[in-house]
Amino acid sequence: MDSRVVVITGASSGIGAALARNLGARGDRLVLGARRMDRLKQVAAESGSQAIAAATDVTRRKDMENLRDVALREYGHIDVWVNNAGWATGKTVMELTDEEFQGVIDVVLKSVLYGMQTVVPHFQGRGKGHLINVSSTLGRVPLVSYRSIYSAAKSGVNVLTANLRMDLRARYPGISVSLVLPGIVDTEFHLVARTPMATKAGTHVGAATVLAPEEVATQIAGLIDSPIAELYVPASGAELAKQYYQDVGAFEERMARW
Ligand SMILES: NC(=O)c1ccc[n+]([C@@H]2O[C@H](COP(=O)([O-])OP(=O)(O)OC[C@H]3O[C@@H](n4cnc5c(N)ncnc54)[C@H](OP(=O)(O)O)[C@@H]3O)[C@@H](O)[C@H]2O)c1
After folding, report:
1. Which residues does a 6 A CB cutoff place in the pocket of ligand 1?
2. Catalytic annotation, pick one of 75, 114, 146, 150
3. What does the pLDDT look like over 195-247, one tens digit per residue?
4. Residue 80 maps to which CATH number?
5. Distance from the CA of 247 to the center of ligand 1, in angstroms?
6. Tally of domains in the chain
């Protein structure tokens, strides 16, 4: 198997950490970014023999450029870049403060722009590469009102991802651009984002089963092997989206009855 060079943001916990361990085990060379260096170094130590931890705040363009430069300096090129870092508040539209609004936009949406603008010129120079943005089912189906600005920011991620893919398609057929839309995953995200119910892997929240981060990581590893435009995890998210767009009013009424 080829050893690929993969950069992952938000790798100090949750899905990013699980993905690092998964790819490290198959021999990929990794550059991991996040702010909590103690946690990040621990994940790097658990992710094969060639994983580097680089302190990164994804809301700073210079930090993202540094993440790229660490990978280029250590490994000479980048095969895959995963914009995974994320954060949410538990506030409805009417409760949001300016700071919360801006904070989520910066971590969720601006960071993805920075990631894309940072690595795509490198991919264009090589004529190949794979850009993966981790979104959320909530970015397509905004069914949880206390995730208001988070869902709005993830919708923006979906749009930027689709636009970049369309822009590159004709001149750079060797570059893949993918969107991952996870459902509910058992990570620290829910502590930080004040999810008001238990989110232990295997339990049910409405019709959804909470996933372990390792399950999402396995799916993203499969996506790296065989790139596609969009990956819902679980796959039933695609059906949810279809039902939503068929009749938004009826869908919201059904949700309200739950
Ligand atoms: N958990 C879910 O139910 C769920 C569902 C759908 C989508 N997602 C998405 O999945 C992705 C991963 O989230 P997770 O569930 O694995 O949550 P998590 O365990 O809380 O991980 C979030 C990661 O993002 C990093 N991060 C946050 N702000 C950052 C910043 N300013 N700069 C750099 N890194 C930052 C954190 O690292 P540091 O704090 O160390 O910087 C951490 O590594 C996110 O994009 C999230 O929106 C999660």
Report:
1. 9-16, 34-36, 39, 56-59, 84-87, 107, 134, 136, 182, 184-185, 187-189, 192, 213
2. 150
3. 777 788 988 888 789 999 999 999 999 999 999 999 999 999 999 999 999 99
4. 3.40.50.720
5. 31
6. 1
